[in-house]
Amino acid sequence: MFYYYYDWTYLLVVIGALICIAASGRVNRVFSQYSRVRSRTGLTGREAAEQILRRNGIYDVQVIHIPGNLTDHYNPSKKTLGLSDTVYNSASVAAVGVAAHECGHAVQHATGYAPLQIRGALVPAANIGSMAAWPLIIIGLFLNGETAVFLINLGILLFSAAVLFQIVTLPVEFNASNRAVKVLESSGMLYPDEVDSVKRVLGAAALTYVASAASMILQLLRLIIIGGRKRND
């Protein structure tokens, strides 16, 4: 068992972790920078979100205040758009940008954006895969024969569902950001130079999703290598 748990494939996990840490650090720095820049229109995140929803004919989504920092999200089942402490009542350029991004998800939901629907359908499989994959693989490593190979392959298959979820998330997030930039440009909620600042904030945020997907892919590669070793024993 020492062979499986102390080998070069741990480097893949370390690389993935470092990528995620770097992306998280960047988004925090960029958001912090532009959260200190007040929008010249004086709109708060909540006000911007409500205007964007109305501009898109969406009246059944409630904008709510949620605790935390950058915990903002759109909940399609409850039809709520949650804005965090640093966004809801803030009139910063960063806050307006984040609020507009979350509105992009609400618009995706209202218009039946296909990647969002696919991601929603993958949620159960991704949740099961992320929880069950490693226990199955670890049990398989302790066993021998066809049962071991079956459990490891099943674990890899389940983990692949979680990886697929992360990959499908990318176009969903990129599209929401593109929608946010377009509506802020066309509505006059922000001035052109402020929209450029929003692009930097949302660009940094997008890197966190890319980093997460890359980390998951590296973990999947590690599992495939470990599985291949077991099959060859």
UniProtKB/TrEMBL annotation:
It comes from the Bacteria. Pfam families: Zn_peptidase_2. Keywords: Membrane, Transmembrane, Transmembrane helix. InterPro entries: Zn_peptidase_2. The chain crosses the membrane at residues 7-27, 121-143, 150-168, 201-225. This is Zinc metallopeptidase.
